[in-house]
Amino acid sequence: MKEIDFFGVFLSPFLLWGILAFVLLQLLRGLLGRTGLYAHVWHRPLFDLSLYLIILALLVYVARRLSL
Questions:
Q1: Which of 1, 20, 31, 41 could form a cystine bridge with 13, CB 3.0-4.6 A?
Q2: How far is CA 48 from CA 16, 22, 34, 66, in A?
């Protein structure tokens, strides 16, 4: 995917995927908090970072597969 022109500023698609992954992480964190699944997590910040990286990797993978 090429750079995105945002009012004359070229942005990497990776930045947009990162922002989308962060929004999805926040939604998933709310769901995990309401269901009580965070009680089974040993190190919550490390778990959240890992979950963010998994979501980001899935977004990049799906975006690349759809552009082929």
A1: 1
A2: 19, 10, 15, 27
Tell the residue number behind the tokens 């945002």, with chain if given.
6
pTM of the model: 0.85
Phi-psi region of 10 (alpha: psi -120 to 50; beta: other; left: phi over 0): beta
CB distance 40 to 34 below 8 Å: no
**Tokens describing residue 14:** 């990776």
SS3 letters for 35-54?
HCHHHHCCCHHHHHHHHHHH
Residue 22 has pLDDT above 80, yes or no: yes
